[in-house]
């Protein structure tokens, strides 16, 4: 349970970090918080030639209000997101989700850039970036490019990041005023990875459901949007029958694994219950905002 | 062979200059290089919480930190809390509440509690349970640990009120 040997380089700029990644020829790794990377190193699941530490790069940890969008630096710690007033005000569903991310000691150290780049299928931040239509800014020696969250998560622990690329900013659109939202998760123990999780944002326009987004995780190889359920809900008046149809569509769409913690059938059942609760709660919040 | 890297690190107020291999975990650095064996190593992959210490004031798993990353950092371990004759209020509360049996998880529980009560001095029992959820105990059933943290929180609040009054 000790890491294999590697060279260590503390980068002092993003340029230096991506240069070091390029110099490593593909087997270098960025270390941010290290809360997923260190366990993998301790298990020797990874044998990087060099670890490029980005913790000493100035100005990589921030949450900025940028008009209709929020920009988050890749080195922003989970605890900083959890306690950010900007997040609490503009993205309350993300604020709620942060309380479910691991445990205090891990939230003190883990980062949003690390969580997204690691892409655990049962982690909150990858799912939230997908739910909230995040744009992920990445940089390499070749320059910068933008990857939409929906194109980023390719499989368990697999992302669209190419060798030599580093995530340098997470850019999220603010929620429209009056947006209803909900976050529902079940885990065996507070802070553990989810057995299943659903988050919803929607609006109530003239008594009808609009702009509905449903994110799910723990029930597949990547976090997912429930696109069929979103389609079934859009433009409808809220009713138990409409929600039941969406829930059924979600249960059909997912292919959860069976493992030590829960069977596939249980996770499929659970994700439907969580979706039902989340849609109802989001609708109540949207109606409250519309009439409050 | 990877070249060792020189670091300067302050642990419990004492400054050390050491040369470390990049892959050396903070937990092993504390125990083997500094002889501070109060920090216990359980799972070595961030699940059990036994090795929790404070890094620059915040609780952290020392098995998920590389010593080489800590050049210039301040680390606090259980050895920095209190002594046998002058227990820290959190240690005293654990003692009074019978919040330990074998004691293996205790250093991690204590260091976690320091951070928990710093960030949430008014924590209710639910928040205490959530705050301790990353630390495994195989003996106590947790009830007495929660009681101890509750007692410590009340004691620390009372001390603060006294200090404010005087």
Compile the SSE list and pairings.
The complex is a heterodimer of chains A (292) and B (166).
Chain A: E1 7-10, H1 14-23, E2 28-31, H2 37-42, E3 50-53, E4 63-66, E5 69-72, H3 78-82, H4 85-90, H5 92-98, H6 104-107, H7 112-118, H8 124-131, E6 135-140, E7 143-148, E8 153-155, E9 158-159, E10 166-173, E11 180-187, E12 194-205, E13 208-217, E14 224-225, H9 227-233, H10 240-253, H11 264-291
Parallel strand pairs in A: 1-3, 2-3
Antiparallel strand pairs in A: 4-5, 5-10, 6-7, 6-10, 8-9, 11-12, 12-13, 13-14
Chain B: E1 5-11, E2 14-20, H1 26-33, E3 52-55, E4 58-61, E5 74-76, H2 89-96, H3 106-119, H4 125-131, H5 143-165
Parallel strand pairs in B: 1-5
Antiparallel strand pairs in B: 1-2, 3-4, 3-5
Q: Care to count the β-strands of chain B?
A: 5
Number of strands of chain A: 14
Can you tell me the CATH superfamily of the largest domain in chain B?
[2Fe-2S]-binding domain
Helix residue percentage of chain B: 25-40%
Any idea how many domains of chain B?
Answer: 2
Label this structure with key terms:
heterodimer; A: 292 residues; alpha+beta; Uridine Diphospho-n-acetylenolpyruvylglucosamine Reductase, domain 2; Uridine Diphospho-n-acetylenolpyruvylglucosamine Reductase, domain 3; Enolase-like, domain 1; 3 domains; 11 helices; 14 strands; globular; B: 166 residues; Ubiquitin-like (UB roll); 2 domains; 5 helices
Short recap of the structure:
The complex is a heterodimer of chains A (about 290) and B (about 170). Chain A has about 290 residues and is an alpha+beta fold.
Describe the structure.
- The complex is a heterodimer of chains A (292) and B (166).
- Chain A has a five-stranded antiparallel beta sheet. In chain A, strands 11-12-13-14 form a four-stranded antiparallel beta sheet, sandwiched between helices. In chain A, strands 1-3-2 form a three-stranded parallel beta sheet, with helices on one face.
- The radius of gyration of chain A is 19 Å and the shape is globular.
- The N and C termini of chain A lie far apart (56 Å).
- Chain A has helices at residues 14-23, 37-42, 78-82, 85-90, 92-98, 104-107, 112-118, 124-131, 227-233, 240-253, 264-291; strands spanning 7-10, 28-31, 50-53, 63-66, 69-72, 135-140, 143-148, 153-155, 158-159, 166-173, 180-187, 194-205, 208-217, 224-225.
- Chain A has eleven helices and 14 strands.
- Chain A is an alpha+beta fold and 292 residues long.
- Chain A folds into three domains: 7-53, Uridine Diphospho-n-acetylenolpyruvylglucosamine Reductase, domain 2 (2-Layer Sandwich); 63-173, Uridine Diphospho-n-acetylenolpyruvylglucosamine Reductase, domain 3 (2-Layer Sandwich), CATH 3.30.465.10; 180-291, Enolase-like, domain 1.
- Chain B is of the alpha+beta class.
- Chain B has two domains: 5-80, Ubiquitin-like (UB roll) (Roll); 89-165, [2Fe-2S]-binding domain (DNA polymerase, domain 1), CATH 1.10.150.
- Chain B has five helices and five strands, in the order E-E-H-E-E-E-H-H-H-H.
- In chain B, strand 1 (5-11) and strand 2 form a beta hairpin.
- In chain B, helix 2 packs across helix 5 (143-165).
- Chain B is globular.
- The termini of chain B are far apart.
- In chain B, 42% of the residues are buried.
- The model of chain B has no long low-confidence stretch (mean pLDDT 96).
